[in-house]
Amino acid sequence: MDADVIIVGGGPGGASAAYHMAQAGIDVAVLDRASFPRDKVCGDGLTPAAVAELVHMGIDFSSWAHNQGLHVIGGGHSLYFDWPDQMTRPNFGLARPRMQLDATLIEKAQRAGARLYENHNVFEAVQDSLGRVVGVKARVGRGAGAREVSASARLVVDAGGVAGRLSTSLGIEKKINRPLGVAARTYFKSPRADYGWMESHLELWSGKPGESELLPGYGWIFPLGDGLVNVGLGSVSSTANATQIPYKQVFGQWVANLPEEWGFTPENQVGPLRSAALPMAFNRKPHYSCGFAVVGDAGGMVSPFNGEGIAPAMKAGRILAQAAAEALIRTSRVSFDRAMLVYPHELVNEYGGYYSLGRVFVKLIENPQIMRICTNYGLPRRRLMKLVNKLLSDGYERKGGDADDRLIATLATLVRKV
């Protein structure tokens, strides 16, 4: 399994990095502890930013469920916001179950030349006498029949998800002052499966709707086609202390209040309600050091604005591949590391200020009164919501664009933090 680059984890971030590296002629091996297809807890929604990354990978998504924007419900309002038509992003989104999405992405990486090793549970990074990461150790199989294998590489990438086990084993701990979200979702058979909008319900109540505390979070209904919808809710805390919400209770009450004809009933439910943590705003750093890089959820790349992790992970994978291609032609470790520092530098340029704005946003919506004011008085102002839609969905142009794009980009530059 020796390679130029070893990527631990074959999710969207790992698959994107593997694809773009293989396209650049890099010998890359992906080790995943599961076998594909395998499921992940996710909303399954793909914003235009994610669609743009699929285009970079040459993915054929013509048969996937398409959506034209957001249908936002809250404060007695029901409003529709089209995805903006941007220079770098299309004016439509997609939805795809993660079991199918991840399998498609890793297969694309394999076709480009990446090697996939399934059922390889990486448990340790191998370091040399100077502390540089030079490989990994993994267990193959389970129980008495399990065996240990090892592999070496000039670059090791942790794309192993929220736990960041490989990063943690190297002492790269998560930052407790960064937002942490929690999402729970399940699937329903429903006539809403072909609805052409991603639907967001901005009011989650701790008890009876309209008479209890408004919780910091939102509910979603994302149509997947083929008779299926992804229904879930998410909540967020401004620190690593996850919000203490009885998810099953809140989810059950919210779903029970939705229109009966949508069919969100126990007999139509497909699979259990499952939850997962959402590490946000670069809560684990550095993203590169001494032959070791971090991408996706392992590096806390989930957006604090909307809980989206797929688009940032895939873009980070593409940026990482570009840096690796330059670094691997260098003959000394010092020069290699200098080239690899392009990766964290570009991540800060792309998301540093945006995520800093997101941290402010999370602190605001933690206050139920502010959340209520925003929902009741902000939603009806369509001009304001056009800007907010771009902000929350990472739909703004970093350079150029219209007045809204320039305003968001300016604010992100002003608050940018490493």
TrEMBL record:
SUPFAM superfamilies: FAD/NAD(P)-binding domain. Pfam families: FAD_binding_3. It comes from the Bacteria. Residues 2-328 form the FAD-binding domain. GO terms for molecular function: FAD binding; oxidoreductase activity, acting on the CH-CH group of donors, NAD or NADP as acceptor. Transmembrane segments: none annotated. This is Geranylgeranyl reductase family protein. It comes from Scrofimicrobium canadense.
